[in-house]
Amino acid sequence: MLMMIALGTVIGLALPTAMRSPAPAPATPAAAAATATPAPPRETVIRREGDGHFYAFANVNSEPIRFVVDTGASTVALTPEDARRAHINFDPSQVVRVGYSAGGELSGQPVMIDRMELDGKRAGSVPAVVLPNLTVSLLGQSYLRQIATVSISNDEMRLK
Fold it and tell me: pLDDT digits over 98-122, tens only?
């Protein structure tokens, strides 16, 4: 093995300059930026409101929607109005049983959100449901589980 490395070195040095591969061009600032390590995600702090809930705006398909951040909800749930605003077709004839809550059976229309973003934290293809009787949209685990850390301390929820 050592002999092969030495032989390769000797052959490489013996080749005329014209036959050697050109040296790589120095990196341009744009190329250096393209290979830079991404910055760590920034922390988002959401303060508890007077009613005891945490509220946040998230973009759904590029439309701002106000959510209650609900760590106990298994999925994102949208009001019919918010679904329409986010260009998600809500068809009442497509409503089926989608689960259970403390109040009993839940009926809604399962949908897929193409793009969601909260303070730079992006997710695509987020399962969701449109609930006909919902009064405020819920930001549940189908989005939150894509966040590295979700913690609550005192009156602050931190997403990172």
Answer: 988 888 899 999 999 999 999 999 9
Which of helix, strand or coil describes residue 87? coil
Of 139, 133, 140, the C-alpha closest to 104 is 133
Instruction: Please tell me the least confidently modeled range out of 9-13, 39-43, 60-64, 152-156.
Output: 9-13
Residue with tokens 């189908």: 142
Nearest to 88 by CA among 120, 119, 117, 115: 115
H helices of the chain, where? 2-14, 29-34, 80-85, 141-144
Domains of the chain plus CATH, in order, are 53-159 (2.40.70.10)
- In angstroms, the first-to-last Cα distance of the chain is 49
Strand duo 137-139 + 63-69: pairing: parallel
Instruction: For Cα atoms 29, 34, 35, give the angle at the middle one, nearest 5 degrees.
Output: 100
**Cα 136 to Cα 34: distance, rounded to the nearest angstrom:** 40
